[in-house]
Write a structure and sequence with these properties.
This protein is α+β, with helices and mostly antiparallel strands. It has 8 helices and 6 strands, in the order ββααββααβααβαα.
């Protein structure tokens, strides 16, 4: 039985639908980008020494922390190849593994580090509402096309399969026309 409260519809049907969409989407992302991923790994290995992947501590559902997979970004900005990967927004492709593991969602609020989480908790009385959803690889965007606090809170309250598909489609379309896609 589903309950409706101030946070919208919650319950097993919503959770199962969202999880199925997330896993299916993450598997498709990994399969579709496998050739790109292999080129990325080879390019990184040829252009620099050091790690290819890293796990970044991230605050997730209900405030639980987990290690989010990302491409490793050298402190000094890295090589030209690294910069191209980050500008193209490809640094978060490894996070699809976190989606399959259940720590992240394909679409959801922006992932925050524990430091960002602590800072934002102090200044926002509505911050805890964001933690009712898993952080996403793709973030809800406001009318201006940029990630926004209100768009994220609205997403948490109004989630539906249709809304996920809409956010993903808008992201794909806007991604073609953005100058810089990789957000740190």
């Amino acid at each position: 039985m589903e309950a409706t409260g101030r946070m919208g519809v919650v319950g097993p049907a919503r959770s199962v639908s969202k999880r199925m969409l997330d896993v299916l989407g993450a598997v498709l992302v990994l399969v579709f980008f496998l050739p790109v991923g292999l080129v990325m790994i080879a390019g990184i290995r040829c252009s620099r020494r050091g790690p290819i992947f890293t796990r970044v501590e991230t605050v997730g559902l209900h405030g639980r922390t987990f290690g989010r997979w990302r491409l490793y970004r050298p402190i000094e900005g890295g090589t030209l190849f690294d910069q191209v990967l980050w500008r193209a927004g490809l640094a978060d492709l490894p996070s699809a593994v976190n989606v399959i593991e259940g720590d992240m969602s394909l679409i959801g609020p922006r992932p925050h580090s524990p430091g960002q989480d602590a800072y934002l908790r102090q200044g926002r009385s509505d911050y805890a509402r964001r933690l009712e959803a898993r952080p996403g690889m793709i973030w809800p965007r406001g009318a201006e096309g940029e990630p926004s606090w209100n768009a994220e809170l609205d997403y948490v309250v109004r989630w539906s399969v249709f809304l996920d598909l809409r956010v993903a489609a808008l992201y794909a379309i806007q991604g073609l026309f953005r100058e810089e896609q990789g957000v740190d």
